[in-house]
UniProtKB/TrEMBL annotation:
Protein known as: DUF5694 domain-containing protein
Alphabetical list of InterPro entries matching this protein: DUF5694
Pfam families to which the protein is assigned, alphabetical: DUF5694
Keywords for this protein: Signal
Signal sequence annotation: 1-21
Amino acid sequence: MNNLPKLLLVFLLVSFVTTSAQEPQEILIVGDMHQLPGIVKRAYKPMVKKILKYEPELIMAEYSKTGDTAAMGQWNAKFKEAYLKAKTAFSPDKEEIRILEQTPNTKLDSLQFRTLQAYYLSIGDQANHRMYRYFARHGVAKKFKPYGNQNPDLTFQLMRKLELKKVYGVDSHKGYQGYWTAWQRALKSGTKEGKKAFKKAMRKDSWGNIFAGVSGSLGRYVNKPETLDKYFRINSLRYEGFSGEDYDIQLKKWDDRNVNMAKNILDVLKNNANVKRSVLIVGAGHAKAVSEELKRLSPNLKVIMYHNLKNHIK
């Protein structure tokens, strides 16, 4: 009988450890607006404040996967060219890089940021190459000049404020070449009704962006479920009245890109199994498709959309 309390304690400890180990990972999906007009260039600032309350441990963004030249595609051709040159021309001091990667950014100077920038270029890591180039130019001071772009104003500010050292690129343009030209041709060949529906969606979105921008709620507007659905449909011409070979080409290329992105995200989470809360910053047109694909591929992953974030903040 004297051993009963000890056995009960052991049982409770085992149960706690098991429950903790089974706790699912979470990913917050944030749809961004890419480049904003100058009049609303501060629109990312309230988004940064809101996401910080979620206390994320890892940030993923719409950059090509490290070293994957096929996934870099034509849109990242300049970076790919620079990477292939640096790959053979740059010989990093591995011990120096190891130390710099473990040193808080607040303790690094411009020259050390440049060293990291050069290193990440040499391994084809576009996300961190861009981030450390930004830090080399602007430092990690509390104040920063808004550019109206999701990279310096949202992704890099989160990395800076959270004191994280590495942002993960999860985009893929593999097989994506020809999407834009096929999309344009498909749009031109659509029926009158199809074009009308498309133009109506674009017009409604323009006015929605204007009103949201003026009221300071652009991030919230863009991440509403109906807005994300609108961008998803615009980017893949999912309207009655569009069909044909070009339509099928652009549709497949768009859908394949989102599937590949979801797979890359799951690879990052698998390699960072100790991380519970992560954030994906991605173009608003991708947010819906990627979230659905993640749920399909990994049912145990907890997917949180930005519009519902307030219910998941401590």
